[in-house]
């Protein structure tokens, strides 16, 4: 067998030089002082520099070591003392102003116990670092606002709480909820909602300092950690600044949107023992302030609020179950023609019948359903239940009278309201003449443009429209004329004292006079005795409703008491 000869040293040097020059990694050799005396070809190619620009440079600075970082310096000193291999990560700019990341291994060569050379092998790990950065952003940064997200917040709050415990200071957690962001998304599109969120982010960032960290908390909410506070006063200063900025108009597609925010705040350590409890209590404070008038922008957590909100949340949970289990039923109260004393219509009134048979009246749950954004679902459900009942009565051959159904202000914010109602009537083959739609003054005034558009759609289809609780709101005579109502209901508050209170009597006389001039049918609600009936008849009111004739009763009772008699 032919013997293999060892490569001669001269040849070996040539081979190694070619290998080193073709390496994708950087190889840099420095003298005993760390000055570069050799660099392979890839160094010059990557950095787009000449030998004159590289040789003689400090090798640590060249690969990007931060000599102001004491931790790194300590590691270098330990390396020089012990002579062990030293590994570290750096970054620096190369040609095209591009930043690269390098993982470096630094070793030494000694002769006769004397340090002769430093050798640094550097590997480009830029793509790896980019991947890490992308993973980090995906996990911890909100893509819309570039704010740290909820996960980052939880980690930051835990650290902040530990810091407070050791420093005996205070911090506040502030949840900022942008009001009606859901409606903005629904009515104008998600892109408009995004514009609003980004605008608010920018405004709040501009007023926060290094003691205040801001995070994206939900679709329409942010959360702020306010550290090193002395009490509520410090937080209130920030809250006032924030709300002033948030209220400034936001430019959207050559128009302006005006928004407001609500804030719930909890303090540590006063209001909680740890991070989780602190967040929960800030959310409780937010839940409380969202139930308050618009003039109350923020609320600080207290134990009393905790008990109140827990009770409310329990009730809300029960209502959700009630909706799912169809515990809501429709009762009916007759409308009586005051001249003929005959039934000429009915009002559909919602009741909750619990599993134990207990009846809950609407004044207990309507407001909560509105807060929970369930009123639209329940409102449509009522119309469907009324149509189902009408279809049953019509199929039995009964002489059916029109039924009035109340529509809430929140339902009118849905531009598809008319379409949804019409689809239900067509599904059950119910003519629009059998349904009268009741709205309140406040519904009309909240968004006059949308209300006018929706009411025109409904009237064009054939519905009669009744304005409810007239005299208690802000609607003018001009609006009565503009919206072309068919019926006008006089609020019960004027009827109660009409036989004793001359002012109420004068108001009702004026309302009836206005209604007649506009050819509106007047309905007096809440007539309870013969004396009230006599007064309303004398004034020329056409229709009455109240306990004098009947309380709201079930569909079965209506059928037995009224419909079968007229069959």
Automatic annotation (TrEMBL):
Protein name: Uncharacterized protein
């Amino acid at each position: 067998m032919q013997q293999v000869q060892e490569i001669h040293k001269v040849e070996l040097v040539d081979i190694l030089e070619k290998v080193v020059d073709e390496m994708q990694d950087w190889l840099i050799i420095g003298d005993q002082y760390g000055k570069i005396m050799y660099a392979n070809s890839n160094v010059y190619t990557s950095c787009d520099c000449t030998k004159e620009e590289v040789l003689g440079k400090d090798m640590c600075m060249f690969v990007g070591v931060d000599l102001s970082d004491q931790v790194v310096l300590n590691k270098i000193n330990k390396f020089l003392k012990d002579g062990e291999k030293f590994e570290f990560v750096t970054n620096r700019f190369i040609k095209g102003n591009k930043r690269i990341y390098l993982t470096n291994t630094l070793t030494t060569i000694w002769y006769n116990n004397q340090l002769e050379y430093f050798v640094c092998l550097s590997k480009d790990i830029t793509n790896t670092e980019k991947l890490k950065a992308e993973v980090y952003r995906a996990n911890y940064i909100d893509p819309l606002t570039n704010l740290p997200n909820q996960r980052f917040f939880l980690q930051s709050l835990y650290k902040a709480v530990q810091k407070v415990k050791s420093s005996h200071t205070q911090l506040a957690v502030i949840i900022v909820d942008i009001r009606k962001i859901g409606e903005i998304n629904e009515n104008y599109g998600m892109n408009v909602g995004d514009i609003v969120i980004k605008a608010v982010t920018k405004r709040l960032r501009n007023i926060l300092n290094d003691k205040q960290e801001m995070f994206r908390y939900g679709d329409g909410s942010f959360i702020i950690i306010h550290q090193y506070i002395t009490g509520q006063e410090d937080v209130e200063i920030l809250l006032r600044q924030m709300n002033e900025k948030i209220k400034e108009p936001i430019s959207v597609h050559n128009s302006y949107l005006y928004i407001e925010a609500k804030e719930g705040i909890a303090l540590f350590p006063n209001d909680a023992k740890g991070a989780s409890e602190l967040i929960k209590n800030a959310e409780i404070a937010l839940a409380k302030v969202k139930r308050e008038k618009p003039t109350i922008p923020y609320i600080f957590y207290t134990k009393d609020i905790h008990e109140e909100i827990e009770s409310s949340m329990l009730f809300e949970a029960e209502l959700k179950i009630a909706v799912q289990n169809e515990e809501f039923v429709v009762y009916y109260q007759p409308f009586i023609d005051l001249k003929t004393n005959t039934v000429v219509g009915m009002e559909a009134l919602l009741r909750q019948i619990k599993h134990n048979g207990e009846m809950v009246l609407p004044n207990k749950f309507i407001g909560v359903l509105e807060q929970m954004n369930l009123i639209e679902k329940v409102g449509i459900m009522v119309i469907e239940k009324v149509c189902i009942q009408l279809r049953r009565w019509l199929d039995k051959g009964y002489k059916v009278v029109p039924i009035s159904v109340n529509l809430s202000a929140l339902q009118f914010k849905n531009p598809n309201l008319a379409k949804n109602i019409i689809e239900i009537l067509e599904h059950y083959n119910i003519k629009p003449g059998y349904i009268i739609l009741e709205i309140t003054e406040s519904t009309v005034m909240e968004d006059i443009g949308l209300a006018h558009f929706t009411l025109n759609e409904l009237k064009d289809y054939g519905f009669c429209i009744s304005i409810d609780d007239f005299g208690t709101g802000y609607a003018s005579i001009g609006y009565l004329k503009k919206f072309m109502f068919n019926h006008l209901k006089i609020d019960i508050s004027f009827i109660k004292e009409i036989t004793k209170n001359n002012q109420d009597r004068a108001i009702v006389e004026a309302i009836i006079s206005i209604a007649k001039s506009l050819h509106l049918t007047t309905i007096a609600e809440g007539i309870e005795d013969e004396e009230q009936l006599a007064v309303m008849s004398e004034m020329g009111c056409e229709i009455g409703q109240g306990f004098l004739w009947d309380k709201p009763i079930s569909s079965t009772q209506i059928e037995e008491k009224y419909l079968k008699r007229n069959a």
